[in-house]
From TrEMBL:
Residues 1-150 form the GH84 domain. One of its GO terms (biological process) is glycoprotein metabolic process. GO terms for molecular function: beta-N-acetylglucosaminidase activity. It holds the Pfam family NAGidase. This is OGA GlcNAcase. The lineage of its organism: Eukaryota, Metazoa, Chordata, Craniata, Vertebrata. It comes from Spizaetus tyrannus.
Length: 204
């Protein structure tokens, strides 16, 4: 029925999206969802070019970066993906995922993501460790990164200043750009406080 896999997927996704009344959040995960899966590259992939052309503009497209588990994300990489998909990607961040090797647990701070990325993203999803409590530091430091990105956006766009300022006032802030080490220390401080609080609960 369809001349290519990409056209088939786009057609089905578009039909479901319209049937559901075009919801504000509707995500599509392409078969080629990172650079290493694209042939020969994201900007020259016939599959991604078709997805970008055929998929309705209200549908978000998931992307993991250069690899399935990407150690780094840069603005240049995201600009290439945005160009071929004709929309900013939703990052599906597997930095902490350990479902492929549950003998490992990742406890470090959120890092390897260049400053100013938020303006190039439609959204960001964090794929966590399978062990629930091991995600305190990853999620806490992601929050610090996000607040830093909001401040950067606010300085670039004064219209968003009040929103960023309100968020900083309610959740605390640090001067300057995001520092993984400072974010880690803050997360460890809050994690110890949480552990001590739980230890005092009846029956613990």
């Amino acid at each position: 029925v369809f001349p290519s896999l990409a056209q088939a997927q786009a057609s089905v996704a578009n039909e479901v999206y319209q049937e559901l009344g075009q919801p504000s959040i509707f995500l599509f995960c392409p078969t080629e969802y990172c650079s290493s899966l694209c042939s020969p590259s994201p900007s020259q992939s016939c599959y991604l070019l078709t997805i970008g052309q055929e998929l309705l503009p209200g549908i978000g497209v998931i992307w993991t970066g250069p690899k399935v588990v990407s150690q780094e994300l840069s603005a240049t990489q995201l600009e290439e993906v945005e160009g071929v998909l004709q929309r900013r990607p939703v990052i599906w961040d597997n930095l902490y995922a350990n479902d492929y090797d549950c003998r490992r647990v990742f406890l470090g701070p959120y890092m390897g993501r260049a400053p100013g990325l938020m303006s190039r993203l439609h959204g960001l999803l964090l794929n966590p460790n399978c062990e629930l409590q091991a995600n305190f530091i990853p999620i806490h430091t992601l929050g610090s990164w996000f607040r830093s990105e909001l401040r950067s956006c606010a300085h670039a766009d004064h219209a968003g200043m009040e929103t960023a300022t309100a968020l900083e006032d309610s959740q605390g802030s640090e001067e300057g750009s995001y520092s993984p080490q400072d974010a880690l220390e803050l997360a460890l401080h809050d994690w110890v406080a949480e552990i001590n609080r739980q230890a005092l609960e009846p029956g613990r």
